[in-house]
């Protein structure tokens, strides 16, 4: 049976995200989410994930920026919980909207 989720709700469980090297003068963002109104019932949940760096980049992992996320629109809801994060994630974790 396939669970039916309301539009705009994205739960992600028990998996792996492998972060790759960004293009020159760029950075990585693991997740983006956006909503036009504060009361929209949308969002992204990443739970019990491993967020790791591509193995060949380990020695250079601090030479480029990787953020957990950023807002895509005026409002955003993203939850990353019970997950393993590498030390290559920027300490502030989130960046401001572009």
UniProtKB/TrEMBL annotation:
Single GO MF descriptor: pectinesterase activity
A GO biological process held by the record: cell wall modification
Pfam families, alphabetized: Pectinesterase
Keyword Hydrolase appears in the UniProt entry: yes
Keyword tags: Aspartyl esterase, Hydrolase
Xref: Gene3D superfamilies: Single-stranded right-handed beta-helix, Pectin lyase-like
Domain Pectinesterase catalytic: 14-95
Pathway listed: Glycan metabolism; pectin degradation; 2-dehydro-3-deoxy-D-gluconate from pectin: step 1/5
UniProt entry tagged with the keyword Protein transport: no
Family annotation (PANTHER family): PECTINESTERASE (PTHR31707)
Name recorded for this polypeptide: Pectinesterase catalytic domain-containing protein
